Amino acid sequence: MQRFTDTTAVVTGAASGIGAASARRLASEGATVILADIADAAGEKVAEDIRQAGGSALYVRCDVSSEEDWHRLHERTRALLCRVGVVHSNAFAHRDAAVHDLDGAGWDRELAVNLKALFLGARTFLGDLRETRGAFIATSSVHAHFGLPGYPAYAASKGGACALVRQPAVEYGPNVRFNSVLPGPILTEVWDAVAEEDRRLSADATALGRLGAADEVASAVAFLASEDAAYITGAELVVDGGWSVKKESK
Ligand SMILES: NC(=O)c1ccc[n+]([C@@H]2O[C@H](COP(=O)([O-])OP(=O)(O)OC[C@H]3O[C@@H](n4cnc5c(N)ncnc54)[C@H](O)[C@@H]3O)[C@@H](O)[C@H]2O)c1
Question: According to the CATH classification, is domain 8-239 in 3.30.559.10?
Answer without folding.
Answer: no
